[in-house]
Amino acid sequence: MRRLQLDLQFFAGEKTEKATPKKRQDSRKKGQVAKSQDVNTAISLLAIFGFLFVGAAFMGKHILGFFRHSLQNYMLMPVTEANLKIIVLETMQQLIYILGPVMLVALLAGLAANYLQVGFLLTGEPLKPKLEKIDPIKGFKRIFALRALVELLKSILKIGFVGTATFIVLWSNIEEVLKLSFKSVSDALQTVGVLTLKMGLAASMALLFLALLDYLYQKYDFEKNIRMSKQDIKDEYKNAEGDPLIKSQMKQRQREMAMRRMMQEVPEADVVITNPTHYAIALKYDEEKLDAPYVVAKGVDYLAQKIKYIAGENEVTMVENRPLARALYDQAEIGDPIPEEFFKAVAEVLAYVYRVKNKL
């Protein structure tokens, strides 16, 4: 028997269940999401080389103009504090023109890659210092863990894919490469630039393919890490619903408050219809509030006796009508008007009450 209990505890603690929505939300708030850094790198490189492939001519003109202006003007200027300030400001301005668009494209590509993977997420939880990160024992475990082997395999695949992609580009343009020695410096630089952009685009697409595979692995690993045991799910449900004892106490207090409010309405009732011993229904007719009489209190057994006691103390008329009392108790709720089928019977009761009180 003891062995069976231990086995049940083991299986209850084993993380075999998918994470609940609350668990996923809590993990997301902590910055724990399925994300591949390789996707960011691949998309950023692809965007940068794509931009360079389109805007290389524009950047080349600015670079040549900057060197020409430097050789024609800066080399002939005397070295003074004012001239150095001018040179620095103009150089910074040219660098912004040349490198600014590239950096902007890289920034937008990085933001797009993150948004595609995890959506909008802003949290500072990963930036908080954690002592467990400098724990040497856990550090050794991370080094020799399965994830380390996966990262090693990814690095080997990256080198292989990038090398293969660049080799294919060079081999397909081998004639241009062999003719470089016969070209002028400007033509050779142009050919090298075009080949570099082609190799960059090919390598970026190869990395993007690997990044997609890595994202699938990261998603699988993330789902595995956030799995829950049956006991975790029970504890989460208990925390969400609250302690059953506290919950029952709150419901009891709510019932007591509702009963007190109901009893406070009894003295304002026009009539109390009784069983006479088991049921009591207090009715009131206020044409400014509702078009039909409505229930202000109802009860059975002990509660019915209490309603009749309060009604007697406040001189509220009580009428014995067994079938009507039972039917109203079953079909009418507190605060609601009586059902239409009881209009005639209740009207006769109220007419009797008004005659007794000389209100007609």
Automatic annotation (TrEMBL):
It is a multi-pass membrane protein. Keywords: Bacterial flagellum biogenesis, Bacterial flagellum protein export, Cell membrane, Cell projection, Cilium, Flagellum, Membrane, Protein transport, Transmembrane, Transmembrane helix, Transport. It holds the Pfam family Bac_export_2. Its main location: membrane. It is found in: Cell membrane. PANTHER family: FLAGELLAR BIOSYNTHETIC PROTEIN FLHB. Belongs to the type III secretion exporter family. Required for formation of the rod structure in the basal body of the flagellar apparatus. Together with FliI and FliH, may constitute the export apparatus of flagellin. NCBIfam families: flhB (TIGR00328). This is Flagellar biosynthetic protein FlhB. It comes from Bacillus kandeliae. The gene is flhB.
